[in-house]
Design goal:
Blueprint lengths: L8 H7 L3 E6 L8 H7 L4 E3 L1 H4 L15 H17 L4 E6 L12 H5 L5 H21 L8 E4 L10 H4 L9 E4 L16 H8 L8 E2 L2 E2 L13 H8 L5 H5 L7
Parallel strand pairs: 1-2, 1-3
Antiparallel strand pairs: 4-5, 6-7
């Protein structure tokens, strides 16, 4: 089991009537993520083995499907879910920009991509085209989009340039038919939990959920000024409360 006693995004959405789907290129066994999604109310979970179909190993990268092949599955599932006229959460992860060298998909090769910066631009363009597909088909009238970076880039061909940047940030973008207003400039990944829920219409008491504070509610509490410094000191401490989240429930 993966954090069986934790209440996560998938659990909350499930209890609110959402249908949860995850699609990713790599194996579900990686980092136990498949178990996490299945334990927290994702109705459909797809990884490398579930998606590869007739693709041969030389038609996939180290992780699994290239992003262009992955997005074929994602778009098909999006069309299906939106046509159901029921609330849904479709989560997917791209992989071609992953270090140390990135992965050159057929799509990107056809667009003349020959280096790592080109892969980053190509993947970004594919994600933008996916959002544009939603816009052109009217999906954004009733469907919100959240784009999140996984983590800061690690070793890759342009890492020397990245190291010269004094302050690096993880990209995120919230897209909806209704404009939203930020209540501050800096957020932690913990803050995404309450922020995403408020973004799709949930009300978070005092704007705080778990270890995070919503970044879009004007009436919510803001994190204390020294929040980041305290977290850096405390995150690796032993916590009985956190360890309890891992204990399997008694039936």
């Amino acid at each position: 089991a993966f954090l069986p006693n934790a209440v996560c995004l998938g659990d909350i959405l499930h209890h609110a009537g959402y249908y949860n789907v995850y699609i990713g290129s790599d194996a579900l066994a990686f980092s136990g993520k498949g178990r996490f999604f299945k334990d927290h109310h994702y109705d459909e979970v797809y990884g490398r083995e579930e998606l590869k179909g007739n693709l041969k190993d030389n038609q996939m990268n180290f992780w699994g499907l290239y992003d262009d092949d992955l997005l074929v599955h994602v778009k098909k599932k999006l069309i299906e879910l939106h046509a159901s006229n029921k609330p849904f959460n479709l989560t997917f992860t791209t992989i071609d920009t992953h270090g140390p060298d990135g992965h050159f998909s057929k799509y990107c090769k056809a667009h003349g991509i020959k280096d790592f910066p080109g892969i980053v631009e190509c993947t970004s363009n594919q994600v933008a085209e996916f959002v544009q597909f939603m816009r052109q088909n009217g999906y954004l009238k009733d469907t919100n989009v959240v784009i999140l970076g996984d983590h800061l880039a690690m070793e890759n061909p342009v890492y020397d340039k990245l190291e010269t940047v004094k302050e690096r940030h993880i990209f995120n973008r919230f897209i909806s038919n209704k404009p939203i207003t930020k209540n501050r400039e800096e957020v932690l990944h913990f803050d995404m939990f309450p922020t995403i829920l408020e973004f799709i219409g949930f009300k978070i008491e005092d704007g705080k959920l778990g270890l995070g504070f919503t970044a879009i509610s004007k009436d919510a509490d803001l994190p204390p000024e020294n929040e980041y410094e305290e977290m850096n000191e405390d995150l690796l401490n032993q916590s009985d409360e956190y360890l309890d989240l891992w204990k399997k429930r008694e039936n």
